[in-house]
Amino acid sequence: MSSFESLIEYCKDDWNRYIQHDFVQQLGKGILDKSCFQHYLKQDYLFLIQFSRAWGLAVYKSHDILEIRQALASMKAIVEVELDLHVQYCKEWGISKQELDNLPEAEANIAYTRYMLDAGQQGDLLDLHIALAPCLIGYGVLARWIEQQSWYQAHNNPYQSWIDMYTGDEFHAAMQAEIEWINQRLAGIDSQRFQKLAEIFSKATQLEADFWQMGLNKSY
Question: For this UniProt entry, which segments traverse the membrane (predicted)?
Fold first, then answer.
């Protein structure tokens, strides 16, 4: 029976490169260059805008009122809460709202977000969720992975509030709900359908790793 773990197993090397990326390790050690983190934060603001569009697409792709409500709630959470929180967090790192509003979009950001949207447009609601899963679930996995490492430095780590966000109970409750949603829909699917979904998941995971690399390189 297919499950979210089956997707990870399908692209285990890519998944580990994403979860254990050098950006993630430097962040966990507290040694990540401030300018790299700022670059990531700025691009993540643009990512969230596209992420809200993906949830808007999820509303359209939904088949019943429960799915519509769930997708709408996710979209509203980003548009009405998360974006404002992100702007405030960026301000703490010396990034103004004006700067965020005038940012060029990095190639890695374009590649990842447009891939997510394209996967959802060409496929169904499950295809879209699978494309979103490395972000929706992966951040929680990698934050917990950081905490388990012997090199993890919590004391005086300038990025501790970021780690706390993704190890917190609220994020993990949402993460587990997403895993359960995916598992319910993967149960009993045929091998051909799983193969297609696994390819989407693998590509999205690779693009997530590229997003970290973009942060390290401070590239556009």
Answer: none
Tell me which DSSP letter residue 149 carries: S
User: What is the H or E stretch that residue 16 is in?
Assistant: helix 12-19
Rounded Cα distance between 70 and 59, Å, is 8
The CATH number given to whatever domain includes residue 43 is 1.20.910.10
User: H-helix or E-strand containing 67?
Assistant: helix 65-77
Q: Is 208 a known active-site residue?
A: yes
Work out the average pLDDT over 210-220: 96
Q: What's the domain count of the chain?
A: 1
Q: Render pLDDT for 175-188 as a digit per residue (tens, 0 to 9).
A: 998 999 999 999 98
d(CA 58, CA 183): 18
Annotated active-site residue in 11, 90, 135, 178: 135
45: Cα separation from own chain's centroid: 12
Going by the DSSP 8-state scheme, the letter that residue 79 receives in this structure is: I
Asked if 119 contacts 61 with a C-beta cutoff of 8 angstroms, the reply is no
> Residue 17 and residue 211: Cα distance in Å, rounded?
12
